[in-house]
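Please review the protein record below. Let me know how this chain folds according to its tokens.
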Amino acid sequence: MAEAVLADKFIDISEEVCPMSFVLTKLAIEELADGQVLELVCQTGEPVKNISIQLKEEGHTIVSVKKEGESHFRLQVRKNN
């Protein structure tokens, strides 16, 4: 079983739509130091897919992705820059 990672910052963007969901995620991760972890809750479907892709393209590491209920996901992302 994977070791639980404690997040350094948490945001809930489950009520946001693109592009605002990614803008808020980007602003939150920019506040972190390298190696720190952002945890966020977002909607299933396009938001979780697009946010994951964009964060990876920027060089960050997706630590975990967990489905919560039918309509949300919880992501943990380690800042790498």
